What does this fold into?
Amino acid sequence: NAGVTQTPKFRILKIGQSMTLQCTQDMNHNYMYWYRQDPGMGLKLIYYSVGAGITDKGEVPNGYNVSRSTTEDFPLRLELAAPSQTSVYFCASSWGAGVMNTEAFFGQGTRLTVV
Amino acid sequence: AQKITQTQPGMFVQEKEAVTLDCTYDTSDPSYGLFWYKQPSSGEMIFLIYQGSYDQQNATEGRYSLNFQKARKSANLVISASQLGDSAMYFCAMREGFSGGYNKLIFGAGTRLAVHP
It folds into this structure.
């Protein structure tokens, strides 16, 4: 079972460059999430989606954009990368909409460095 | 507003002893779920245990149990008979129900647990 797959695993960006972090899940989950985790810190929610075509901001959305055109895919776009966006990014998915007792499944993470 | 607080940045425990990791939360939604995740040094997120706000009994999963005190809004994780492999970061997380709209999942800052032989 693939679960949640993130690509790339590592990336170095120069200040001002843009990139898209890819996330796909094969569990037919309706909810998907993007988090960032700074060194030694907890996970901060960037954006989340409750289904295809529906996204909403999390705790730290500035500098990021998302789209959800299919159930499986939830890419995260970084525009004009800044050093403050150096972090590990996690994508996750879960059931939602009335199914409370279901955990989120996480990808392996993308380690991004902006120099 | 939805909030999770973990006040212990780091904890130490001797192998084979029990340890409690604290988690308090704040929500105005009567329907919510609480989760604990483990993150070893390799970085992956591992789900440990779940507690629903309407569950009558504290959740247990093997050596993990959740001390759920609803009136105090606390959901502490208890690890019994600690093992060296339990050394990791531990995160408490919460998902609200529907009164606040979409039910996003938010995390606390985490507690780093070190198990000593």
The mean pLDDT of chain B is 92. DSSP finds no helices and twelve strands in chain B.
